[in-house]
Amino acid sequence: MVKELWKKLFALGSVGLLMSCASMQPEPKKMEPAFVPQSIQSTCYEQKTDNFLVLLDASGSMGEKYKDQTKFRTAEEVVSRMNQTIPGGMNLGAAVRTFGAGFSRDTRSMFGPGAYSKEDVEASLGKVNYGGYTPIGNAFSAGGVDNASMSGTTAVILVSDGKKNVGMDASKAAEEVKKQYGDNVCFYTVLVGDDPGGKELMDEIARIGQCGFSTTADTVYSSEGMADFVGAAFCGGEPPVVVAVIGDSDGDGILDNLDKCPNTPKGASVNSDGCWAYQGDILFDFDKYDLKPGAYPILDEAIVVYEKNPGIKVEVQGYTDSIGTEEYNLGLSERRAKTVEAYLEGKGIDPNAISAKGYGEANPVASNDTKEGRAQNRRVEFRAAE
Predict the structure, then answer these.
(1) Rounded Cα gap, residues 175 and 189, in angstroms
(2) DSSP bridge partners of 156
């Protein structure tokens, strides 16, 4: 009866399966140090699960870059590292299923269900690329059919960014699987990336499983982290302590914990602090505030940033070196900022979107003890207004 139910659900979830993306070329792997699995043979005293079922997200959002490679490549590597870490000699059933990679409800069996083979599971990876929407619910439904042919307990391992779910409701599909198999299934979710909505969904699915847990790719990517994950999911050890995910909220290439200007406009050049600044380019001669020829291309680039970010308000900040009185330098720095402001307004920038302020010799970017350093400090920078 249960098997027939799952077969019907599978049929609904797999319409268009023959039209999947076999023509898509796999993404080449990033060159990185070879993974060396940490042995847990001596600590895996008792086998906790009889089978494992991997649901691997191959949807379009997995093509987004996360920490210098696509999320899909990270997801595949997580499964590969798990496969390498599973202790030899374990009597397991296994299945690997992808979802996405084409039409909105596409889900494909890449391996099994059948007897676990480390070599065959590894060979199943790298055969499909990412694309399409995220039918997590359909994958769970199809995974239920996979599980129906395996006996004993199963660890369902979902590796996904949790974004843009379509098709069957993911939580309801997970609840249905849990209802049908009860204590014989546990859900383990591995979040790839840092999307808040994705995390919420992945956490919810893990809670539905009751006997699994939610973690992140950042946590399990290392040899030690993966050993903790495999030990907990396959042998009953303690779940790995989740590593805090540090994102880049404004997409400027500087992680949030290092970014001193967290709201950089799209397309703006930044310095090592993550602040919109053309240091070394918009510079001024000693005691002057007229623009030098090298400043014009940079200011034209700033105009492009305005065009990409409608509605932004920017403060032009002028600076000086330390020669002269504080009062004089404040005035000189403001004149430098107003020169830039006037140029931008002359190019069509809305005067209400820009302001100018002088900061004198504050916030030097180089030493005022040398001629070269003082030249670097006679500058203008841009900051997005709060």
Answers:
(1) 14
(2) 53, 187
183 vs 206: CA distance, rounded Å: 14
All domains of the chain, ordered by start, with CATH? 2-235 (3.40.50.410), 250-386 (3.30.1330.60)
Extract the residue ranges of the chain whose pLDDT is less than 50: 1-25, 31, 103-104
Say if residues 160 and 134 touch (Cβ distance below 8 Å). Answer: yes
Given the structure tokens 């996360």, which residue do they identify?
Answer: 66
Report yes or no on whether pTM surpasses 0.70: no
Residues 223 and 217: beta-carbon distance below 8 Å: no
Residue among 318, 321, 311 nearest 339 (CA): 318
- What residue has token string 């070394």? 280
Give the pLDDT of residue 6: 43
